[in-house]
Amino acid sequence: xxxRAALASAPVRxxxxxxxxxxxxxxxxxxxFLAIRGLGLLALAWSPERAGRPLIEVLGIWDGGxxxxxxxxxxxxxxxxxxxxxxxxxxxxxxxxxxxxxxxFVSALTGLDTRWAGALVSLTAGAVAAAGVAIxxxxxxxxxxxxxxxxLWATGPMAVVGTLVYTEALFTALAVWTFLALRRxxxxxxxxxxxxxxxxxxxxxxxxxxxxxxxxxxxVQPSVPDRSVxxxxxxxxxxxxxxxxxxxxVLIAGVLALAGTPAFWLWxxxxxxxxxxxxxxxxxxxxxHFDGGASMLDLSxxxxxxxxxxxxELMSLAVVGCLLGAVLLLALAARDRVWWPxxxxxxxxxxxxxxxAGYFSSKxxxxxxxxxxxxxxxxxxxxRSRPAQ
Length: 389
Hints:
Radius of gyration: 24 Å
């Protein structure tokens, strides 16, 4: 061995190796998310577009104001669809309860203003979500892809909601960790997390359907084979039945994961005095209802023909382009054999985004929780960045 080789192979005193947990994809993705969001906050703090408004006022705009009011004053006790869209009471019935409950709890625990509590919840949940995305992607395609997936999710269109008083970061964290629990057959954990996701955003239904579908598939699939020898000496192999206790846990998980959003719909119906109270509020205040994609088709036609509403041409083009890109990425995820419960969740969520009428500019934000869309892109980037052998 040459002197140079010997020196290179000799241990360096005083230098400790980096702990495994630091190099773990989840840790790297979390650090990346926090760094990206920290830079975003600095940019926002120095942005001239704040027009002298306090930073927290910007972080708590639009839907954030509704969540803050619910956290501080609760929900409306009546349904008045004749009220203007600026009404501060009836419209609250459109917003699911888990996020404002967390705002109230964190504010009471820390003494923070409710808006700052909301920003803290979103930032923390976003970091947890980035870690979960990295773990899921690592289990699918390796460490490099896992880190890239977490970072891509943190930098995607409208990922800024990870620091706003909005629900997307919390919902994504709950959805991601529901699927991590599901992959490990932690049935009760998956059910509870799925229910929590359903109490955060209505797309929690997609999480519940994926959990229930995977649970049903697990029950009907053969487990460890039961081998027996017949009197004539031939060996017969029968699929072993799943233990009854496990079957019960699977059933409970599916019911729990599906129950979150419908439970809130039922509560709003009882509170408002009409079974479709939640849907009525959504439509009356925001024009939000499922139209099978008719409104998006009309927007796409206007973009192609150059007939977009004056002043929002670029936004219209961005929305249509991102939704088309989302469909393509979902197709690539299916081709690349992403775990099928994730595909069910992503497909249902995308159908709900494309198929719903309402403020079209919000659709970019609605894509944030569909984290599966970054998987094929992360794999492509990972393959390109891998050194040639």
